[in-house]
User: Fold these one by one.
Assistant:
Number 1:
Amino acid sequence: DVDHREAELPGLQRVLERVEQGLARDLLRLVQDARKAAGLAVTDRIELAVRCGGDVAAALARHRSWLAGEALAVEVVDGDPSWAPDHLEAADLEGEPVGIALRRLPG
């Protein structure tokens, strides 16, 4: 039985990674929606702050650099930003509350 469970671990790990990837894609969609609501151009660079917990926070931690690249964010911080946001958005992702703050960078 122990050998059988050990053989299942890599499969379980792949499933968990896919779930995290899905959450990261959903989080990107929320960020893109916030960019659109803020009236940003597709090429505008931003600073981004995300307040979340649970599985969404785990997905953010694991996929932070990917999210930053896709969202054109020069910085992605956890929690409340130290800077004054141009736009705030509140959402729900898989039952977890998510807060998004962004600020357009000049240039």
Number 2:
Amino acid sequence: GLLGDFTKARLTDEPLGIKLGDERKGAWKLDVWFLDSAGYERHAAYVAEMNRRLTEESRKIILAIKEAYWRRPEYRDTVTSDHIYRAVLDSGARSVEDFEQFMEGH
């Protein structure tokens, strides 16, 4: 049940995803995170650094990859937005094909 999922998420420090509606038709997925102060500080620093590194070009590439993936069953489960950000910002992916090569190694 949902309460058990919340407990598991708290114990494993993993996000809990709540999916609302049919994912392939654009349903929302909410991630609920349970972080202690140190975990929050690490995540806030990561987000700030990612925002600093984003350019107009990298934003367009990220959106193009997300557009290609959002209806696929693996998106949000084994392929996440974080994978896309890391592929573009850390590994230089510039296309869906580059992203797919990135994912082969992860």
Number 3:
Amino acid sequence: RRRHSFPTRRSSDLNVRVLEMEGLGPSKLVGMILADHGAQVTLIGNAIGGTESIQTPETNNMDRGKKSIMLNLKAEAHKTVFEKLLKQTDIILDSYLPTAMAKLGYP
């Protein structure tokens, strides 16, 4: 029986910085594909209540090739970090409701 392996492609041609907001929906898949093609993807996890919801790449294959950080976007200190990341980002992926980011003060 033959096994197929699909190596992760890293292409230096894609010079894009992506900020992926952790959530449900297609953003995880899009972030994974962009990371596979050489984009610098940073996964923002929800740190409300001190729970750590980001899984490691060893347990969640869709997080491979991504950096990750836990932020509580309701805390001022974390908002400062998030805004710094926003200034360095070319693409933002989020699967929240359309009003979620607006409620946090980001149109």
